[in-house]
User: Which sequence fits this backbone?
């Protein structure tokens, strides 16, 4: 452990850090270094496209340096936290690069969060300032911050982005009226640069800490493994306030030379139009994004020939979804990937010719991480045996802001215990089978919720399935399934039981309760909020 300039205690192994520098895994650079170099070499290079507006490397550097100067004038120094709660707008790029120039810690907050979540994050992170969308999707974020400020004594500044006026309270005013940039102290690439709050799928959000080095490594390994090249156009529908959107939407263009189209709000038809119009070669998103894009292009008879790659993760991905992409989009390879905010992209999928089955039926090839499966006592398990997945590598976070949470999640060898259940294969792949809390203990019989979900997805009328543990007086727990039916189709509980009969699955795995719903509660990244489903079924009993 060591104390970061931000004041947080972080996981640190100096010998391992030195090794990763020697091996070139840590570049000891920052996104500000990359942005400066790109602006000097190719100032007209388009880095992001936002609602049709092209943003160049030169503009990013000019706006970011002016914003950094304004923040410095307002007393921000290395280690201070600046938050932003904005949609997929290009201004988030200016904020990130400006913060990096000063050695600030950025704290992205997803736009679906409201008073309770935002207050918790701003208080817990000790944020000194925040940039917000004044209004977005009918919600008044400015009014929310006005309500919260009396409870947040450390929050000194609230600025709007795209506000009604461009005065000193808006980002435009800050940039326009900034003094010259002073000579700044160097920024350590080992310092915390990002505090990112987990989605809270399993409980209270945790503050994940990443350094400049760890985030760069994750982004570059994705580009290398997937063959993303300078000049490629990517589409980012995932929120830039999530680790995937942040890394690929905000920062990848400066490291790899890509051009990223930021999508403010997911719409499958509009996404297909963007892919065709902008000649998008790569996008990444959660399962619903891929499913809905396939529905649109199949219904419209489109093939999106420019699209080469669609990694998919975040939520459970049924094998049939991946196989379907090969039938619908002949030039595109879709594959499952696995990771988390703490350990971005533990696996990077199988995307080479001849790997279609591995792409669909595993959660991807382990790249750049050491991964092991352990039993409940922490003992190493052999290939093929299911246990808790643990990972260690140069893209791993530096722990949590709460040192106690770090102590629980990291072992003495530096492995992060993911809380996920799965196993490793002979092909160096991970197969994720569920969360530790996602195992259903039916009278002592352990049932994987994901296994049942995959079975339910085989029914042609089932669009989505989420399986949870339901309280049972005699057995303790039993199986409950929430099901979304495809538009224009019908399905009954009897139809689902008929499918399970045909598959020949053990009767213990049959859902005792099947609830048909229009949608699942989910996080901004598309993960199903099973904690809310568990609460819902308890209320129904």
Assistant:
């Amino acid at each position: 452990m060591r104390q970061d300039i931000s004041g947080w205690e972080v996981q640190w192994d100096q010998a391992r850090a030195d090794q990763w520098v020697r091996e070139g895994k840590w570049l000891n650079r920052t996104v500000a270094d990359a942005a400066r170099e790109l602006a000097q070499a190719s100032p007209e290079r388009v880095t992001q496209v936002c609602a049709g507006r092209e943003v160049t490397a030169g503009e990013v550097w000019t706006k970011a340096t002016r914003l950094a100067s304004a923040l410095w004038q307002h007393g921000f120094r290395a280690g201070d936290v600046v938050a932003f709660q904005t949609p997929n707008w290009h201004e988030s790029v200016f904020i990130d690069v400006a913060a990096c120039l000063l050695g600030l810690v950025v704290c992205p907050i997803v736009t679906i969060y409201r008073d309770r979540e935002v207050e918790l994050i701003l208080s817990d992170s000790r944020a000194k300032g925040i940039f917000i969308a004044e209004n977005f999707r009918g919600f008044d974020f400015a009014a929310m911050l006005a309500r919260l400020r009396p409870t947040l004594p450390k929050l000194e500044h609230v600025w709007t982005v795209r506000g009604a006026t461009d005065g000193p309270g808006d980002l435009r005013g800050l940039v326009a009226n900034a003094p010259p940039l002073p000579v700044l102290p160097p920024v350590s690439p080992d310092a915390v640069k990002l505090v990112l709050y987990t989605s809270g799928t399993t409980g209270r959000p945790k503050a994940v800490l990443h350094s400049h080095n760890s985030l760069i490594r994750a982004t570059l390994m994705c580009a290398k493994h997937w063959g993303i090249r300078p000049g490629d156009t990517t589409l980012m529908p995932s929120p830039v306030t999530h680790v995937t959107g942040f890394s690929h939407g905000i920062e990848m263009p400066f490291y790899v030379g890509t051009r990223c189209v930021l999508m403010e709000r997911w719409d499958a038809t509009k996404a297909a139009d963007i892919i065709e119009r902008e000649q998008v070669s790569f996008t990444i998103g959660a399962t619903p994004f891929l499913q809905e894009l396939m529905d649109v292009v199949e219904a419209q008879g489109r093939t999106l020939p420019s699209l080469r790659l669609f990694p998919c993760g975040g939520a459970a991905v049924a094998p049939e979804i991946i196989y379907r992409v090969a039938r619908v989009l002949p030039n595109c390879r879709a594959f499952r990937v696995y990771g988390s905010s703490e350990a971005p992209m533990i696996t990077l999928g199988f995307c080479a010719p001849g790997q279609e089955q591995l792409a669909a039926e595993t959660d991807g090839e382990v790249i750049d991480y050491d991964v092991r499966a352990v039993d409940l006592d922490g003992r190493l398990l052999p290939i093929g045996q299911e246990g808790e997945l643990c990972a260690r590598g140069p893209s791993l976070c530096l722990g949590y802001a709460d040192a106690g949470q770090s102590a629980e999640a990291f072992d003495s060898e530096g492995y992060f215990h993911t809380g996920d259940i799965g196993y490793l294969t002979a092909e160096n792949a991970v197969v994720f089978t569920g969360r530790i809390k996602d195992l259903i203990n039916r009278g002592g019989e352990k049932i994987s919720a994901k296994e049942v979900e995959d079975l339910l997805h085989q029914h042609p009328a089932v669009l989505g399935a989420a399986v949870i543990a339901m309280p049972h007086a005699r057995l303790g727990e039993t199986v409950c399934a929430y099901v979304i039916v495809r538009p224009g189709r019908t399905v009954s509980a009897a139809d689902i039981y008929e499918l399970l009969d045909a598959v020949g699955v053990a009767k213990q795995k049959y859902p005792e309760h099947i609830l048909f719903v229009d949608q699942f509660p989910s996080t901004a990244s598309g993960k199903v909020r099973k904690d809310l489903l568990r609460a819902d079924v308890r209320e129904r009993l």
Observations:
- The chain has a mean pLDDT of 95.
- Residues 230-435 form a domain with the Rossmann fold fold (CATH 3.40.50.12780).
- DSSP finds 17 helices and 27 strands in the chain.
